[in-house]
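Cross-posted from the bioinformatics board.
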Amino acid sequence: MRLDVVTIFPECFSPLREGLIGKAIDRGIVGLGLHDLRQWTTDNHRSVDDAPYGGGPGMVMRADIWGPALDAVCPDDALLVVPTPAGRRFTQATAEQWAQERHLVFACGRYEGIDQRVVEDAARRCRVAEVSIGDYVLVGGEVAVLAMVEAVVRLMPGVLGNPQSHQEDSFSEGLLEAPCYTRPESWRGLDVPKVLLSGDHAKVAAWRHEQALSRTMERRPDLLGDARTGD
Ligand SMILES: Nc1cc(-c2ccc3ccn(Cc4ccc(CN5CCCC5)cc4)c3c2)n[nH]1
């Protein structure tokens, strides 16, 4: 898979060079390209924004800068991902779909967002996904892209040491994950649940499912559909 990111803060993406994602890049499982949007500016101040038509707070990122950048970075067969608070929700299912893609291009906005015509124009030649990572407003798209890239790349073959690991991800079975424990067996008067020491895999699996279910009911009834949310 190839990943390209267009941003005015390329340095925000140095964390991708660390850890499992960094290893995936070093091993060629993932190709990463970082592109400074200001490369496509034309004025001495290298400005990328202007005042919003119709008034309102802050500034909007200019289509006449973003257009040439995406023309250069985003081919027609790529999926263009545009993080925005106004997007469809990015979920584990989204990550699983995108892990099948050959090329993802991420357009990181700042200020109050990107002129909507950039998305409209891009959609004439490639698939575009405007996505939100949660119901809160960040300062820009970079943190959202870091989160989505981690969620997608960890699903790719060869990235996680133990492929079993994402079989039991939260959400992969529609439930939150069960609690996890490791040594010491007793710590500050708190003991590991005895069933986990039993060696009885069926009992362990049953206990973990029950824990996942109760946690989900308590913390995320929305994941359980109408029956449990009292709708
Ligand atoms: N899940 C999630 C994603 C983001 C996100 C993603 C990209 C950008 C680019 C700029 N911003 C800041 C930002 C500030 C204020 C508004 C709301 N304004 C109200 C009137 C016009 C707009 C929008 C956007 C982003 C935020 N936040 N949260």
